[in-house]
Amino acid sequence: MAGTGYFIILALFVANVACTRIARQVYEVTHPDEWTSLSFDCPPECFCPPSFPNALYCENRGLKEIPSIPSRIWYLYLENNLIKTIPEKPFVNATQLRWINLNKNKITNYGIERGALSQLKKLLFLFLEDNELEEVPAPLPRSLEQLQLARNKVSRIPQGTFSNLENLTLLDLQHNKLLDNAFQRDTFKGLKNLIQLNMAQNALRNMPPRLPANTMQLFLDNNSIEGIPENYFNVIPKVAFLRLNHNKLSDAGLPTSGFDVSSILDLQLSHNRLTKVPRISAHLEHLHLDHNRIRSVNGSMMCPASPAVAGMHDTFSDGPRLRYLRLDGNEIKPPIPMDLMVCFRLLQYVVI
Predict the structure, then answer these.
(1) DSSP track, 160-223
(2) What's the pTM value of the predicted model, to 2 decimals?
(3) Domains (ranges, CATH) in the chain?
């Protein structure tokens, strides 16, 4: 059951990512008689493909301003230009927009006219990676499902920024300048359906507070996190994928129960300061502990107790579900301890 759940979640995530990458491949064939009308309203600095009438391609053209967007456009590509501002005027007629890609421009918060984005009532995907934003832009349309802000200069999240984004499922804030003081207890209030939160490569020393309850994928790699509060995962009972690689976690910084959290299926703790294997759940399937300071592995002590829950007997008839274990880069010497294999009978890959 746990293995099935893992692959279902992974499949959904991959499908979601794939969807964001293949929008260009969605064709709505247009009759030749309509090509003239499409060319008529197409901005001269852009390209309007007859085979994809809902898309407008304006990327890689050295643009400094956003052209006027025709009302028929759903997908707008403006990446890799010199755009500094997002005014309201170009979007007056663009009431059908679902997708905007503004990656690799020079947009600042001061350049975004208030209301320019929030007026787009059907917008689902907003890409603003590799710009010059210093805070998460607001207000944003309630319809938004994905917000990509990687590789900016974001250090602030104004209060109430996410209060109306109940449809947001993915928030990417990786590779910014977030410190612990960027978060208040109600920062993420409103994100009722958030599934993935990526805050890797920032400057956090503590785990972010009060995350949305539905969070399933939490990525915090490449920060300076030293510890995890007791009962931290009670607030995010559905978290399945947890990445804390390249932090400063030590044994003393972990909760008493370690990572004995039944929802976690994939746990990554590579490149930290652990000297022993933390406590884990019998549900865990993938465990990355490479490049820590672990000297030995005691399979008997590491072995989690199978959950004594009604209806779970068949699921755990073969013991804990761990299938992948990485321990290289520590001070452990082969061979693999026999008691480790006795406990984790489903292990398929062990790197030591």
Answers:
(1) TTTTT-TT--EEE--SS---GGG--TTTTTT-TT--EEE--SS--SBPPSS--TT--EEE--SS
(2) 0.88
(3) 50-123 (3.80.10.10)
